[in-house]
Amino acid sequence: MRLSAKGEYGVRAMISLTLEESGGPVPLRNIAEKEGISEQFLEQIFLELRRAELIKSVRGPRGGYLLARNSAEISIGEIVEALEGPIAPVDCLAQEGSGRNRCEHVRKCLSIDVWIKLRDAVKGLLDGISLADLCFGEKAEKTTAMV
Amino acid sequence: MRLSAKGEYGVRAMISLTLEESGGPVPLRNIAEKEGISEQFLEQIFLELRRAELIKSVRGPRGGYLLARNSAEISIGEIVEALEGPIAPVDCLAQEGSGRNRCEHVRKCLSIDVWIKLRDAVKGLLDGISLADLCFGEKAEKTTAMV
DNA sequence: GATTAACCCTACTAATTCAGTAGACTATAT
DNA sequence: ATATAGTCTACTGAATTAGTAGGGTTAATC
Ligand code: FES
Ligand code: FES
Question: Chain A residue closest to B14 (CA)?
Fold first, then answer.
């Protein structure tokens, strides 16, 4: 149940970008340095984020990256899914349309219920938190409690 | 954010065991066959589950495995943690006591907040579902809703 | 119009983790 | 005694991950 480095770096980098982009495009180098991430590795990450249309790029000198939308409109869930594929604790749930469901072969699978709940909880939580929430304080600060 | 085969098989096998153990110890071979899991691989899994004191073993002929506690007292969270280590989306959160916190090195890390929430949500959900819930129907069937 | 700062993109590689096997040992019911 | 079933460690092959290398393209500026 661990995120890969790509997902972790991606979220960190997007936060960094959120904090700096107000002054125009931010070069990847800046972010890589601030976050202590290899420039070339981060480049790959940003390539995927751009293809997922979460960021825009500007080429040439004084170029760099910008958020594709307002930071309040970009959720952590989107970032994670762009970099790690669909949020799903087991394969059966990942390719939802495709009918590739091991659960059916083996016997009526009782564990699928818990994985569905888990997926919905994780997705719900991550989709409900935006970059703005993390960077500029949350609407409701009190969501952590009660565990 | 995917479970490993160990975790997935472990949960499936524990469910299988719950359903069969009423008639005395269940040999590993039975479960492996029913679930379509390699016997030797499942053996390793059960070794870890026994060490985590989630199951008991009986050796010799007519031996096998039994739940160490009542099925209502064993949560899915315990099974997953026994097999996959602490539930934590990022390393920083895994070794909580040990002070090995990358977050501090780099800069005040804003993403840690979301990972803490995520961990608490996942842990809360998985710790709140028991084998009995999955096998014999849940107390409150309506827990899925609202996402 | 040359230079240079930036992004674009694919392919490769080293390291690690994962999934599964092998095989030798121990306990116990019959 | 023998067969059945768990115990345990070490090994291996495959897959994934993390990171590198290096050759593009675009556009601002001098
Ligand atoms: S085999 Fe897919 S979750 Fe049961
Ligand atoms: S570096 Fe650990 S979550 Fe920020």
Answer: A111
Q: Which atom of ligand 1 is nearest to the CA of A90?
A: 3
Q: How far is CA B25 from CA A53, A89, B20, B22, B70, in A?
A: 55, 30, 9, 8, 14
What pLDDT does residue A147 have?
A: 37
Residue B68 token pair: 């160490």
Chain mean position to CA A3: 10
Query: Tokens 């601030």 map to which residue?
Result: A34
> How many whole angstroms separate alpha carbon B146 and alpha carbon B123?
18
Handedness of CA A53, A20, B113, A40 (dihedral sign): positive
Residues A101-138 pLDDT 10s: 566 554 578 999 999 999 999 999 999 999 999 999 87
Distance (Å, rounded) from C-alpha B125 to C-alpha A120? 11
Which residues make Cβ contacts (< 8 Å) with residue B8, sequence separation at least 6?
A90, A111
* Cβ contacts of A129 within 8 Å, gap of 6 or more: A75, A76, A77, A138, B114, B117
User: Worst-scoring range by mean pLDDT, A24-28, B73-77, B99-103?
Assistant: B99-103
Q: Which residues from chain B sit within 8 angstroms of residue A107, using beta carbons?
A: 34-35
pTM as predicted: 0.91
Please name the residue that has the structure tokens 């002054």.
A23
